[in-house]
Amino acid sequence: MRLASIRSIGLLVFSILLLPPAYSQQVQLLTSGKSDVAVGPQYDSTHIYVAPADMDAFVKSFTATFGGQPSSKSLTNVLPVPSSAEFQYLYTTAGTLSIFGFETPIPFPFGEERTGYLVTDMDQAIRAARAAGAEVIVDPFKDPIGMDAVIQWPGGIKMQLYWHFTAPKYAPLETVPDNRVYLSRDAADSFVDDFVRFSHGTITSDNQHADAGEIGRAGETYRRIRITSRFGNMQVNVTDGHLPYPYGREITGYAVPDVAATLQKATAAGAKVLSQPYTASDRTTAMLQFPGGEIAEIHSQTSH
């Protein structure tokens, strides 16, 4: 170990000892790795907003495609301001969904958050998010079963954090979906650095010349970054914004055994194929739209 490193460690320990007790404990949490507030990818849901009249058709089509068990619907206020929405939770072995059918106008900024991430402790999660570079755009508030907050990362990526009064227990997923994020070249590095710090994640690949046929631009390349953490998988697509429809409209990419077979099940259940299967170096991918308008990517591993 270099002398400079030894001096740095000694200085850090000495500094922690001089801090007030509460702040010293917070620093020790951050430096010991115990600040990971993630629970597991089966608790991290895609947020789906549909018209109440479309909820049943969406759930029926999605479960016919991926399986799963939906909860019963409830009519409630899930926000910190007056509102009314039908809410339904859907667990599948390929990913989980929180489905909202608002009967009132949706107050800002709700509807813009992509996902809900279960955390072990809301106060600690908020501190960790701020320390990693996120801003809290909706302060923590109570809902009927717990606490929620909304945070925003560089590039405008919004996520909900949630915590339950009674800890939920869900089976592990069979396949972990991708949270699909589209960012500009200006914001990508800041977002990735900040999110990895918050999630205690790992960058599994950073391909500067990925096949852009994956995002509808065959014959070109783009930068594709993949991250994994206890929050699940994330794919960051770094583009110039020249995206053909529907790319950039999807939130989640679902791993399936066979893309063609999944498309067949989905279309039989009322979904539309928005882009035909495209095979790149490691995946075959396609785009679907379910009743109610929700767009999703599906992908399977390419055999070598």
Spatial gap, N to C terminus: 42 Å
Helix fraction, binned, reads: 10-25%
Strand content: 35-45%
Number of helical segments with 4 or more residues? 6
Could you say which structural class the secondary elements and strand pairing correspond to?
alpha+beta
Assign an overall shape. globular
What is the CATH C level class of the largest domain, in words?
A: Alpha Beta
CATH superfamily of the largest domain: 2,3-Dihydroxybiphenyl 1,2-Dioxygenase, domain 1
Here the CATH topology of the largest domain equals 2,3-Dihydroxybiphenyl 1,2-Dioxygenase, domain 1
Order of helices and strands: HHEHEEEEEHEEEEHEEEEHEEE
User: What ranges have pLDDT less than 50 throughout 5 or more consecutive residues?
Assistant: 1-33
Characterise this structure.
Strand 8 and strand 9 form a beta hairpin. The protein has two domains: 41-164, 2,3-Dihydroxybiphenyl 1,2-Dioxygenase, domain 1 (Roll); 178-301, 2,3-Dihydroxybiphenyl 1,2-Dioxygenase, domain 1 (Roll). It has helices at 3-18, 21-32, 55-66, 122-132, 188-199, 259-268, and strands at residues 45-49, 69-70, 74-76, 85-92, 95-102, 115-118, 135-143, 146-153, 157-164, 178-183, 202-211, 221-229, 232-238, 252-255, 272-279, 283-289, 295-301. It has 304 residues and is an alpha+beta fold. Helix 3 (55-66) runs antiparallel to helix 6 and helix 4 runs antiparallel to helix 5 (188-199). The strands form two sheets. Strands 1, 2, 3, 4, 5, 6, 7, 8 and 9 form a nine-stranded mixed sheet that branches. The protein contains six helices and 17 strands.
